[in-house]
Amino acid sequence: MKIQKITFKPYYTQYNNTRNNQPSIDRNTSLPITNGLEKLAALNKTSFTGQKYELGLSEDELQKRTSEDCLKTTTLLSPNSPEYQGLKDGDKKALKHLVRAANIIGEIELQLDDENNIPFRKYLEKEIAKGNQNAVLTKKLFDGQKGIFSPDHLFKNLSLAKNLKQSPGRGVYPRDLTVEEFHKILKTMIEEGKDEEVRKILTQRSVVERDGKYLKGIDYVDKFQKEFKEAADELEKAAKTSTDENFNEYLRLQAAALRKADPMLDAAADIKWATLQDTPLEFTITRENYDDNMSVTIFKNKELLTLLKEHGIIPVSKDFLGGRVGIVNPEGTEFLKKSKEFLPKLAKYMPYSDEYLQVIDNNNNQTMVDVDLVQLSGQIGEYRGKITIAENLPNIDKPAIKLGGGRRNAYHRQIRQSKGKFMTDYSILLDNSQLKHLKSDTGHYFTVGHENAHSLGPKNVDNLGEYKNIIEENKADVAAIAFTDLLTELGLYTEEERNGILTYFILQNFLYAKPDTTIAHRVRQVMQCKYFGDNGAYDITKDGKIHVNIEKVVPTAKKMLDQIIRIQKDDDYKAAEAYVKDNFVWTDDMEFMAGKLRAASKTLNGTLETPLADYLARS
């Protein structure tokens, strides 16, 4: 059943009103069609998508997953934090508008993630108002994972709504569209000369809808025009008070890109954003396409893929959106800037470096910042198994990169600091004689190497389909390790830091459970665990501990990196498929260590607390 889409007042505005003891007023309640749907929903617990909702988890399961042991809580900056209190007044005022803009992006992402997210949240709110305590606990999980669906820390896929499963097309393809029908429609449209319509369907920035017997792609700026305009308004307000003119210029460019569906406007904003180094504030609209499991299926259909390429169309996975707001930490940023100096030298040492264009150019056009976080909204704030610790953007599919723009790395201090417990968990796996190598900064040094490595290697990789992100993450990990000895010789790391990085890398490849093949970051860790084990980089001792053969780690990384870069350089889908299948093997040793990790930690889900963002949003 199709029901006309109604746009509701954003949740964050309702929340702000209730926190100020003001009545929450829905500006659409005067519309007759809305009133009718509200009454219908109240009668039979249906959403405005026609879906009937019930809670998906039992009371016992909800109690367990929201307990202190099982729900990992990470707290971002508070209003009393010295980082916020130390800002100039103009930057404090700007931060308020940046948080509001990020919250709006979060509302858009809820809809991109699944059409049921907002209606299900409204259902939960009504149940909570009735005193349903299970709905209170479900809402806690919903807010943490930012949606109905999520893998937990053990990669078990959760649905907070009974009898509702996640669609491979998320909220960016029709829920009832099968892969078979998708391919058939695309083929028909190409054969009927609808090339431009197909191009719009297969871009990273469109929402796909049915159009009679065809499909159509609507740019997300057009699809969510009202919301993006509101976000643009907030960015322009921030640009009027922020004390850094370069940052203000970026905000104005980003606001323009939210007002008009034009990839070149996004490119202009991205190019400027990637030059920002010494600004007091951080704001990013993140766009990553790891979650689209529909578009990548085209690469398995050789007939369709060939037809598309004959018409100059390369399928690109859909972007999902997030908003990052923070305060740049100058002290933490200094180490990042130092690491950047070595990138041009590392680029020359990449395998087959004379056979392709590098992601970074000879000008080393990359900036890096360590960020104290105020808000992570949308995809970047989704606690789904884990939450990201750093990002290197724009990704290579973006116009800004193809036009020669640079990249920018942002590191998330509060997320990094919250990982101390996980370092303790991993240490139980390690041979006692090697525990001395693990220090508080060891994981951070490895992460810096990983993010820097995203800027190395082939620039034009378009044809690896569902293996593209797995192999890119695999490249970043292995390149970070392959260059550890060189960076130690050049003075970035001490010898002891080098030993810690190599030891930590081996340990963090052991997971709490076997992931499925859709989780690129975790698949690459299983692959690495097998590969480095097969090549003697670690042994399992008689007492069931991991002993890292430190001197074998870098040579093994170089060997694996050589294979990865050849696949990326050749842009060879079949080679990528064979490589992943050969290495994505869950071994008995992995399961044994996973059992130890599960015994050490009960964590299943997670959530963010954002006290400063909440304060600013309602001020």
What would your notes on this structure say?
With 619 residues, the protein is an alpha+beta fold. Among the domains are: 115 residues, no CATH class; 194 residues, no CATH class. It is 50% helix and 12% strand. The strands form five sheets. A five-stranded mixed β-sheet has the order 6-7-8-10-9. The protein has a two-stranded parallel ribbon with strand order 1-13. α12 packs antiparallel against α13. The protein is globular.
Q: Report the sheet with the most strands, covering strand number, pairing sense and barrel closure.
A: 5 strands, mixed
The number of helical segments is 28
Low-confidence stretches: 1-48
Number of strands: 13
**For the terminal residues, how far apart are their CA atoms?**
41 Å
User: What topology, given as strand order, has the largest sheet?
Assistant: 6-7-8-10-9
Report mean pLDDT, rounded to a whole number.
Answer: 90
How helical, in percent, are the residues?
Answer: 40-55%
Tell me, briefly, the overall form: globular
Radius of gyration, Cα only, in angstroms? Answer: 24 Å
How much of the sequence is in beta strands? 5-15%
Secondary structural class: alpha+beta
